[in-house]
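Trying the structure run again after the queue cleared.
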Amino acid sequence: MSRKGETRTAVATGGKTILLVDDDPAVREMVGRVLLSEGYLVLSAANGTEALRIAATADIDLVLLDLNMPGQSGWDTFEKLTSENPFLAIAIITARQQQLFTAVNAGAGALLEKPLSFPTLLKTIRKLLAESPETRLRRLSGKREEFHHLPPSRRELP
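Done. Tokens:
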């Protein structure tokens, strides 16, 4: 995982590659460990600029993208990622409220609100990775396709 903006690759055998973009090192570490334990190859970025640089040089299967980051916003990063690779699966992970309609209209594959439920996160990742590139392209072009939304975990409720 990365520390203070440093990007490193974690080794996994035969897994898909996930780019994890979040400015919070604790989130990158925690989510990255879960993904590694499931056999995914994890690349991490601390901001949108770093994410775009990695995406331009690595073969990425899915991006988990935070919205609240310094410098380039998550939505700006999303726009650049999808314009450069419209077939790329992207799931928004955020603590920012009221992003559902923006995510649907932008063509994101999923909106996962923090705090995350790891079983649901993994299920959503599997579904997005199983989608055809044509499905992703239709979603980006505004056609109706399945959208995955995970509201924040309500662990404090009985």
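The domain at 17-150 is CATH 3.40.50.2300 (Rossmann fold). Worth checking whether this holds up in the mutant runs.
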